[in-house]
Each structure stands twice: as C-alpha cells, then as structure tokens.
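To fix ideas, we reproduce below a protein record of this kind.
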Amino acid sequence: EAEELRVGWEHLQNVRARIALLGLPDDLIPENPDKLDRLARSCGQPDGNDFLSHHERVIDRVREIYLENIQRLRP
C-alpha cells in the first residue's frame, strides 16, 4: 500500500506541475479536449482519453486504500 500511495502521490504532483507549466488555470484537469490532449502528451499519454483512464485508475486506488485504512481504524 505504501508503494501504491507513493506512486499516486508522484502522479498527482506530476500532473499538478504540468498543469502549471502549461499555464492551465486553477490547478484542475482541463475539460477542453485540446488542453486535455496537451496535458496528456506532456504526461506521456497519447491522448486525453488515455490520460483520464490512467488518472482515474490511480485516483481510484488511492481512494480505495484510504477507505480500507479508515475502516481498520474504526473501533
């Protein structure tokens, strides 16, 4: 889990930095397809759809680990 969380954190930091470097506003993944494709290519993905698929897998796994650990902490 620790390794998966580290990978997730690195992915999110990379995306955040690339959003800033591309001059995209608000630290958010763009909805505009052209801007999304630019972000995707800068992250090494062929297009926005591939980027979103990868991003969702990373986010979903981090969320899953978080929720599992919250359950473990409950009395």
